[in-house]
Amino acid sequence: MKQSDFPAPPVAEIVPDTYVNFGKQRIDNYYWLKDKNNPKVIEYLKAENAYTETVMASTKELQESIYNEIVGRIKEDDESYPTFSDGYYYYNRTEKGKQYRTYCRRKGSMNAPEEILFDVNKMAEGKPAFIFMGYSISPDNGKAAYFYNETGSYAEFIMKIKDLSSGQDIGFSVTGATSAAWANDSQTLFYGTIDKTLRSYQIHRQKIGETKSKLIFEEKDPKFSTYVSATKTKQFIFISSESSTTSEERFIPADMPEESFKIFMPRTQDVEYSVYPHKHKFFVRYKDKQNLNGKIYETPLAGFEDKKTWNEFVPHNDSIRIDGIDVQKEFVALELRKNGLTEIELKPISGGKSKVIAFPEPVYTVSLQGNPEYDSTSVRYSYTSLNRPNTLYEYDFVSEQTKKLKEQEIPSGFNPDDYVVERLWATAPDGVKVPMAIVYKKGLKKDGKNPALLYSYGSYGISSDANFSASVYSLIDRGFVFGIAQIRGGSDLGEQWYEDGKLLKKKNTFTDFIACSEKLINNRYTAPDKLAAMGGSAGGLLMGAVANMRPDLYQTIVALVPFVDVINTMLDESLPLTTGEYEEWGNPNDETYFNYMLTYSPYDNIKPQNYPNMLVTGGLNDSQVLFHEPAKYVAKLRATKTDDNILLLRMNMESGHGGATGRYEGIRDTAFEYAFILNRVGIDK
């Protein structure tokens, strides 16, 4: 299939807008697509969706096959392993045919009667999109503050309070709520709210029955967001303020909600810290420019203001990043990342030898799940790899025994030994070795004839971990090599790995991904006419950049809700996320950053050349990457590219950043994306 085999695609009207920054003129022909209240914009998006349906009509059977395969790998009737907290066992479950989860608890024992807290299927009935963001139970176990929306937005939630004995909502409803914490009286709730740019900027206090809240704290710096939380020890309420490089915490006793919040340590640029209370001391996770991978101090509950009272509990290590920390009565559980792999260490608070949980496989992902019960001697962790479904374990600090609690079931059957997992290292243009995890079916010939899909993200220090994905086996079982590139911009190899892929080093992210692509080709796993690439959000920026830089390397590119209009978005301070992102991308009001961004911004660097086949998605209610970015990007690509390859825009007109919100609808989205990739490499069954 070529573009010329179909009716002509939609053509967006050209309405030039001219911008001049630092003497450089930019003409944006599609700026007008920003206004979703303009009927012409909606008309254009609908025309693109109709064109996409026309082009993909021949893949309907393939989409259905993939959908059924993925559903077959999911236990549709499933229940999470219960977690004990404050006298109750909490769990959630899914039911066959139902889109959403049901959240439940039982008092004292799993044999006690079930109490349904939230049936999200009922809450979502008749709604085109629905996100349930979670709940917070009051200390008396009688109430729950909960968050939801009906737009699919990741940033605009309504908070209500439910009386768990009557099942009725009580108290107040807050639009634009971001976080919540109960005081120990179970009557006072602290909560965060957003401003017009969707930044969490205020913390309020309100008692049940009161009609008006009291503003407790406002974060004035637009680079910072603020959140409120209660501690596991039930001693304190904390307000944290954080930008992507700097943080500050303030707190009060949870028994004294009317108290004034006290700053733990005043903010200093490029110093990040978090406070984790123990009943008898504070643990402080600390990071600055000299200690990028983080260190942990212990401090007294009283007198901590004097830094001389701080003792180093875990020293900084250049090759080990502290990924996570959980404080229990007897030990501190640490999630540590070294050489791109994670291990868990339990360090006794009284001193003595640490206990380390290590893992033998060459590529895996493990994550600390902690324990909500402060006095408990055990912690949970989940383990997965590209060919091993997710398994939940519990490790007991005293007995040193590990117990398997729950393994992800694959009802249609799955044998890890049918697949090969490898770790490869590509060499970036500056000589740096970049890791990549790949999986494929045993017996695959490395003859350059296999289709492949390479995925990555590469921003915000978020690691591209090698998790098990039930859906991707629809590609692997059809002969694909699937790879995850662990490129700079993530923290896969420590915090310096992140630093080397942001701001004025952002282009390392793109050249690392290209190096990984070339490694797959040079080692004959695949070839350019068989290689697909996929990324979403900031990973969609990656897709846009590599499409401009090396379109010859890829047969197909899938860019999901891509951040592609970097300059325009970062210059518009009224948009969500913009000012808070200056520490990630740079501030384009500064000429150095403006000029650098201009060299890679995907929208600004589209040029007359051949591009791969491309599928670009968006969400009309997207709060993270506004819908106009993918829309403008496709419009400009259509008008500029010189090839006859397929270019599709698929805009979800009812949801946001994550696409369809129901689980079955989400699987249909995935089936559509995979059908596009398969069709492009000539696989139609």
Task: Write up this protein.
The protein is of the alpha+beta class. It contains twelve helices and 38 strands. A hairpin with a 6-residue loop joins strand 13 and strand 14. The chain is globular. The two termini are 15 Å apart. 45% of the residues are buried.
**Helix and strand composition category:** alpha+beta
Number of H- or I-type helical stretches: 12
Give me the Rg, rounded: 25 Å
Unreliable segments of 5+ consecutive residues: none
Main sheet properties: 8 strands, mixed
- The pLDDT mean sits at 96
Count the strands? 38
Strand content: 35-45%
Measured distance between first and last alpha carbons = 15 Å
Shape by Cα distribution? globular
Biggest sheet: strand arrangement: 31-32-34-33-35-36-37-38
Helix percentage range: 10-25%
Top keywords for this entry?
18% helix, alpha+beta, 685 residues
Topology of this structure?
Blueprint: E1 17-21, E2 24-28, H1 39-56, H2 60-72, E3 78-79, E4 83-85, E5 88-94, E6 102-107, E7 115-119, H3 120-123, E8 131-137, E9 143-149, E10 157-163, E11 169-182, E12 188-194, E13 200-207, E14 214-218, E15 225-230, E16 236-242, E17 247-253, E18 262-263, E19 272-278, E20 281-287, E21 295-300, E22 311-314, E23 320-327, E24 331-338, E25 341-348, E26 355-357, E27 365-370, E28 378-385, E29 388-396, E30 402-407, E31 419-427, E32 433-441, E33 452-455, H4 473-476, E34 481-485, H5 495-499, H6 507-522, E35 531-536, H7 538-549, E36 556-560, H8 566-571, H9 582-585, H10 591-600, E37 613-619, H11 628-640, E38 647-652, H12 663-680
Parallel strand pairs: 33-34, 33-35, 35-36, 36-37, 37-38
Antiparallel strand pairs: 1-2, 3-5, 4-5, 5-6, 6-7, 8-9, 9-10, 10-11, 11-12, 12-13, 13-14, 15-16, 16-17, 17-18, 19-20, 20-21, 21-22, 23-24, 24-25, 25-26, 27-28, 28-29, 29-30, 31-32, 32-34
